[in-house]
TrEMBL record, chains A, B:
It comes from Daejeonella lutea. Residues 10-65 form the HTH deoR-type domain. Transmembrane segments: none annotated. Keywords: DNA-binding, Repressor, Transcription, Transcription regulation. This is Transcriptional regulator, DeoR family. One of its GO terms (molecular function) is DNA-binding transcription factor activity.
DNA sequence: CAGGAAATTGCAAATTTCTGCGGTTTTTTT
DNA sequence: AAAAAAACCGCAGAAATTTGCAATTTCCTG
């Protein structure tokens, strides 16, 4: 990635660094030196200041996100990258002026982070976390669908959420899922989640399912909708991946 | 870009600077000196004034937009200790089984943190931040009132929020305020905020106002309600503080 | 409209902050 | 253990800011 910046104020550099860290979970002093067009000493001084005020964690070679958890196992990191890739592809579907509805979860959060700063659009969401992240983007209108906050999923659920969803209409809805299968379509294991997802589907003209490749061909207890209801299937896999071939008959694979 | 200006009054220069900042998110002292045809010393004095009145953020080399902020940065909390004391007193009003409604802001967030882990109660809130904090408490039911997320206040506002508030009824409502005065009662400076606060008051059997002592006897542009509407006034001051005496005729001072 | 107080502005000197560089130390890699 | 990479340290020049002060302008008031 090449980012050219000139004549930044120190505070701006700090903000830039924080953004880079939020985006990639880490930064290298050498990269920042090039991107910010300053010496690595200056970068290190910046990192020191940010570190002393507790915004980042400085390590040899650069810095890490404060919320960065050291990889417990390789798979976690791998999934993280996969989700970022899914998010990156997903945000490509959103264009100027659209009205979008999103659920919660880490993939949605990643997507919220990747919304371009100059995009003017309206985002409905049932996730307070996603809403707060989206509120960083100046040009967005963010509407939080209320309801009973589910402590595990950290999204709003329940009859109020369902009722409110039934009153809106959006262009595109992003949904995550744990169960997706050729025959059973989209499935879920929790009844409450199921109800909300159905309501979200009902509120949207087009539906995009986001899931990492390893979730393909797994079936949960209850059916959300069939594959034909889905307009886009967004995964981290390459579009020519054989695992995706059989899905292409039912939906647009991205 | 070349902008030629001559013979501007200070007020005009200030307006010009604010415009430039709104446009570009930052200004350089040196640029402004040229654009305004005044010495950089004058520019710096202007920036100092604008900074002191909280319109901009002055940094070495120029100034940044007030809305310039780091993603995730916890803004320096002003008078944090006082607010914690207010929060500590406030949470004492909540008892088992109650239904409570709260607004947003740092004081409310402090209160959310202080909710006992074993308290079983229902909290309605218009603040996603407070909601997420409350969701840490296992025994609470947390209901987030939806609406359009206000980027500055980080609370939900707008007609949807008002409508939803009109449909609920709670035992106790916690409200923060910037303006409280014996004669004018509770006042606020933003119309949208005013509407929401009125709706919150309408939804609750009892009203508790939370504010730090220094806010006492200040008046803003628009009236929320009179002091008699208020059931509790919670401040960080000792209950025998002379500043509080005159309020005791209208409301219970804590 | 004259006169004077108060506010404003530019200038220069003193001070502080910022930044890159060379030399040295520490950490990591080979 | 040696080599390489990254950090650290201190310094000096550049840039920005502060401060005091004098000159000027603005704003009242009679």
């Amino acid at each position: 990635m090449k980012i050219i910046t000139t004549g930044m104020l120190k505070k701006e550099r700090h903000a830039f660094i924080i953004r880079q860290i939020n985006l990639h979970n880490k930064v290298l002093s050498s990269d920042l030196g090039l991107q910010l067009q300053v010496s690595e000493d200056t970068v290190r001084r910046d990192l020191n200041e940010l570190s002393e005020s507790g915004k980042i964690i400085k390590v040899h070679g650069g810095a890490l996100s404060k919320s960065f958890h050291f990889p417990y196992e390789q798979k976690d990191v791998y999934a993280q990258d996969s989700k970022k890739e899914v998010a990156r592809k997903a945000i490509g579907l959103v264009s100027e002026g659209m009205t979008v509805l999103t659920g919660g979860g880490t993939t949605m959060l990643e997507m919220a982070r990747l919304v371009p700063d100059d995009l003017e659009a309206t985002f409905f969401t049932i996730s307070p976390v996603v809403a707060l992240e989206l509120s960083e983007k100046k040009m967005l209108t963010v509407i939080l669908i209320g309801g009973t906050l589910n402590k595990n999923a950290q999204v709003n659920m329940g009859s109020k959420t369902i009722a409110d969803l039934s009153e809106i209409g959006v262009d595109l809805c992003f949904l995550g899922t744990n169960g997706i299968d050729l025959k059973e379509g989209i499935t879920d294991s929790e009844w409450e989640v199921l109800q909300v997802k159905k309501a979200m589907i009902g509120a949207s003209a087009r539906i995009a399912i986001m899931c990492i490749g390893e979730k393909l061909n797994s079936v949960k207890k209850m059916k959300v909708c069939s594959l034909n209801t889905i307009d886009y299937l967004i995964t981290d896999l390459a579009s020519n991946d054989p695992k995706l071939q059989s899905y292409e008959a039912h939906t647009k694979v991205i």
